[in-house]
Design a protein that fits this description.
Number of helices: 11
GO cellular component, one term: plasma membrane
CATH superfamily of the largest domain: Spore Coat Polysaccharide Biosynthesis Protein SpsA, Chain A
Strand order of the largest sheet: 3-2-1-4-6-5-7
Number of strands: 7
Shape: elongated
Number of domains: 2
CATH topology of the largest domain: Spore Coat Polysaccharide Biosynthesis Protein SpsA, Chain A
Bound molecules: uridine-5'-diphosphate, magnesium ion
Order of helices and strands: EHEHEHEHEHEHHEHHHH
Membrane topology: Multi-pass membrane protein
Protein name: Glucosyl transferase
Subcellular location: Membrane
Distance between the termini: 14 Å
Oligomer: single chain
Low-confidence stretches: none
Radius of gyration: 25 Å
Family: Belongs to the glycosyltransferase 2 family.
Length: about 325
């Protein structure tokens, strides 16, 4: 049986919030009058998350669980979910109730009524996020639009609904370390958006430390555009012109008999350029690393052996 809708939920150490989440998600989906499945991707949780999931499975036949062998990150977890989703429509939602499950119903309606392939959840109000999160998020989306163009939506995260065609297109991408919210708009499927209020995390704490945020930003930037590489070229050109002007200035000074004194300017220029060259090497390294890992084609996640197959076999047998 193919469900009409799959809801993909990445979870990493969400024992505190999982019961609250299920209590709100299940009635919403039961009320849809559509065949659905919920596919939770347990991203290598080290707390009670897997135990609680197995407990919920006993009373909720529509729940399927994939467990990843190691913590592989939010984006990899969603990718694992998309690769195993069976629904004609696929929604992705965070487990912490920052994305209200009730909005999924609205998204399904919007997708069907407006005959589009993608429905983005757009955060109309994120006053419940910390000032730090809001500021960094705004800077992030500004930068992405600057390098990636206007198809990138401000404040559209990973709460969205996609048609089967869209999910198949995403699954077919060879790219490693994908940042889905930036890739999906570039696929060119007709889309619409649903605005929602981003609530505070219902329980537990954020699983996105600064290190993961930085990793996501770097992946986004290098995955989106070659602009940073070009930036290096333009700066190189600018530096060359500046050097030419300085050289002319020094030579003229020498000819006119008053050579420029002082080494401070020299030191500043040399140090500045050395730092800048290192930065350019770093940028190059990011892209070379990306080429390398794509070439290795090593999966960004490993599903714990047969966890999903065993469930599906049991479900088919019962
Ligand atoms: N998550 C995950 N793997 C990770 C980090 C987070 O699957 O390595 C999940 C997490 O359980 C949640 C979603 O991704 O369902 C978003 O994480 P979180 O709410 O902690 O991020 P924030 O809202 O603070 O950016
Ligand atoms: Mg959250």
């Amino acid at each position: 049986m193919t469900p009409d809708l799959t809801v993909v939920v990445p979870m990493y150490n969400e024992e505190e919030v999982i019961t609250l989440f299920v209590e709100r998600l299940r009635p919403t989906l039961d009320g849809l009058e559509a065949a659905y499945e919920v596919l939770v991707v347990d991203d290598g949780s080290a707390d009670q998350t897997p135990v609680l999931l197995q407990r919920f499975r006993r009373t909720w036949p529509e729940l399927r669980v994939i467990r990843l062998r190691a913590n592989s990150g939010h984006q990899a977890a969603i990718s694992a979910g998309l690769a195993n989703a069976r629904g004609g429509w696929v929604a992705t939602i965070d487990a912490d109730l920052q994305d209200p499950p009730e909005v999924i119903a609205e998204m399904v309606r919007a997708g069907q009524d407006q005959d589009v392939d993608v429905v983005y959840g757009v955060r109309g109000d994120r006053s419940t996020d910390s000032a730090f999160k809001r500021t960094t998020a705004r800077a992030f989306y500004r930068l992405m639009r600057l390098v990636g163009g206007d198809s990138i939506r401000m404040d559209a995260g990973d709460f969205r609904l996609m048609s089967r065609a869209t999910v198949d297109a995403v699954n077919a991408l060879p790219e490693q370390h994908r940042v889905l919210r930036l890739i999906i708009p570039t696929l060119g499927f007709p889309s619409t958006e649903v605005t929602y209020r981003r609530d505070a995390r219902a329980a537990g704490s954020s699983k996105y430390p600064l290190s993961k945020m930085l990793r996501l930003s770097l992946d986004s930037l290098t995955g989106l555009s070659l602009a940073p590489l070009r930036l290096a070229t333009w700066f190189g050109l600018g530096g060359f012109l500046l050097a030419a002007v300085l050289l002319a200035y020094a030579v003229i000074g020498k000819v006119l008999g008053n050579p420029i004194s002082g080494w401070t300017s020299t030191v500043v220029i040399v140090a500045g350029f050395a730092a800048f060259q290192l930065l350019c090497l770093g940028i190059l390294g990011e892209y070379v690393g990306r080429i390398y890992s794509t070439q290795q084609a090593r999966p960004t996640y490993y599903v714990t052996y047969d966890s999903l197959m065993a469930q599906d076999r049991a479900a088919a047998g019962s």
